[in-house]
Automatic annotation (TrEMBL):
Domain Recombinase: from-to ranges: 161-274
Domain called Resolvase/invertase-type recombinase catalytic: residue spans: 4-153
Gene Ontology MF terms in the entry: DNA binding; DNA strand exchange activity
Species in which this protein is naturally found: Streptomyces liliiviolaceus
Gene3D superfamilies linked to this entry: Putative Large Serine Recombinase, Chain B, Domain 2 (3.90.1750.20), Resolvase, N-terminal catalytic domain (3.40.50.1390)
Top-level division of the source organism's lineage: Bacteria
SMART domains documented for this protein: Resolvase
Keywords: Coiled coil
Pfam families: Recombinase, Resolvase
Protein name: Recombinase family protein
Amino acid sequence: MARKVAIYTRISRDDEGEGLGVARQREDCERLVDLRGWSLAKIYEDNDVSAYKRNVRRPEFELMLSDLASGLIDGVVSYDLDRLARQPKDLERVIDVFDSRKRLTFATVTNDIDLSAADGRTMARVMVAFANKASHDSSRRIRRKHLELAMSGKSSGGPAPYGWQKDDPNKVDREAASHIRAAQKEILAGVRIGTIRRRWHEERLGHPREGTKRIAHHHLEHMLTNPRLCGYRTYHGEILLNDNGEPVTGEWETINTVKEWEAVCAAVAERKKGGTGAGRPVGRKYLLSGIARCGLCHTKIRGQINQRWQPGSKASKYSYQCSVVNGGCGKVGRVGEPVEDLIIDLVLEEQRKKAAEDGSPVEVRWPGEAEFQTVSDDIKALTAAANAREITVSSLLQVLPDLERRRDELKLERARFLRELKRAESIAEGIKNREDFRDLPIERQQSIILHSLSAVSIHPAGRGRRIFDPDLIEPIWRE
Ligand SMILES: [Zn+2]
């Protein structure tokens, strides 16, 4: 059987100039996977946009390490070593996993390094150490140069970006700034950059260059997330830090507070993380998505970002909403956090009681089973249709790769779910409170909930009811 490998990609701000967008990284990696005759099990994708934060955590990297360690995948393909591990400590963690599982595979597009052999490891360590030192050196040099500029009161030069006055880049252009802020608000409300881009194009906003059709997507994204908006100085997309590690600020007028700017960056990063795999929006996972059901029409309810939420406001960030799009009545919704808190408390309490009286184990089903079945059936039906010459082979091949990838992703998800379930069985008693629970990966949280509940019914609250009423949330206990 072919080895099940995963692709790991990481985007950072400096990739833009090198044309190393995630799509290209992915394509090159996929080609390599094909070439070696491996089977692609999963694509892990981190948006490690280094300008946003120092020491960014890489959730997908962590997931990949644990999937490698537990045997769900047999290896990793990455564009280059730098994508996989920028810090020596990350490389050491990868090497540890390769130590514990002897037959793992590792390959890069640009240089072939064998992490299962001593030579390869030495090579990898040297490369990461050098890359790390080089970036330290250059950032120190740049920091000094820019601090000198800042101290002498000079700006770093260049034309004024959109949002500031053309003849004086230190002064805000009121009108442009208001367009930027309006667009940022839309981003926070879940509007896509593409939608804003169309509107800006129609209204000729954002200094469109003569003769160009539209502002580029990444260009608009940059205008809305530029660290300059909150006063941070940058160089090649990196926020400059002073010797205390704090961001250096410029003398120009700002358009955002740091908090506002961070919220927009986080929203953009989150949206990007959603677009993994074959371009399917996955989005953030909510604890009770697929578990909660509408009390009126009984369709499954999913979590969604609250459109009215803004940074600093007291409104709930997300809610569970019966949706017409998903075939529901659209009439029932509830703020997310109190529902989750209530259910977590109830389930933990119940499991504590059960553990005390040593209850018998219950069978838990994986929530993705139905989709997995559908995708597998589609693949079968399409292949059969092609064999019977009802459709052409080329139209089969148009859709087959996406379906197969989705099926393999689901397979992996199921394996992960079952693994977490096993772990949850032994671990649930170790969870003392809601905070412990929230620290667990979402899959494990869900498997613990599903251990006790088969569903959660959310009943309509009636008009104008503002106060959260726990009696309207009905847990359906497993029998
Ligand atoms: Zn409904």
